[in-house]
Amino acid sequence: MGARSNNINNTLKIIKMKNSEKPVTNKAQAQDKAPQLIVSPAADAATELRDFFIDSLKDIYWAENALVTALPKMVANATSPHLASTIKEHLAVTRNQVTRLETIFDLLGEKAEGKKCEAMGGLLKEGDSILEETAPGPVRDAGIIAASQKIEHYEIATYGTLVAFAKTLGENDAVKLLTQTLAEEKEADMLLSDAAYSAVNFDAAENTLQPDIAE
């Protein structure tokens, strides 16, 4: 009798175990056990970086268009033929850079539109002040070179960052185009340095630092 009772108890235990393994039929329980969508922090970061990348492109797009408007004024106010020629050549390069940025927007499936660049706006305003405060001649030319190089240094920093962003996002076509522009900005800076070390700065120094000769 004892053995039979033990067999019955064992059978009941097995049934309970099998019942506990049955699939969930309750709707609420099923929802609790449903797999949850996990958003990868890396995916969030990539989306955020892409948004920032596009925002930065809009910023420099505005800046380059503003330069296209401002550079002819610098050319007209430069006394040195060498300086005027250097800026005029960079104006043509800048127009091509605007077109290149429009190509990048198209590659990204975005509308080419500018967002006011406060940094460039400030640099251009400083350039205007130099023209207002100096007379035509070597001193003004030296000021134009100084203002232009500040602009180039800003652009070099900006395009260097944009290249890094594009590489991180895997936008290889954009990397190539931005790298080309970065190289152009570095070359423009070198050309302005050449102008600065030419007679322009020496003439400016002689024009302003000539000692008075006592009679």
TrEMBL record:
InterPro entries: DUF892_YciF-like (IPR010287), Ferritin-like (IPR012347), Ferritin-like_SF (IPR009078), YciF (IPR047114). It holds the Pfam family DUF892. Signal peptide: none annotated. It comes from the Bacteria. This is Protein yciF. It comes from Mucilaginibacter polytrichastri. The lineage of its organism: Bacteria, Pseudomonadati, Bacteroidota, Sphingobacteriia, Sphingobacteriales.
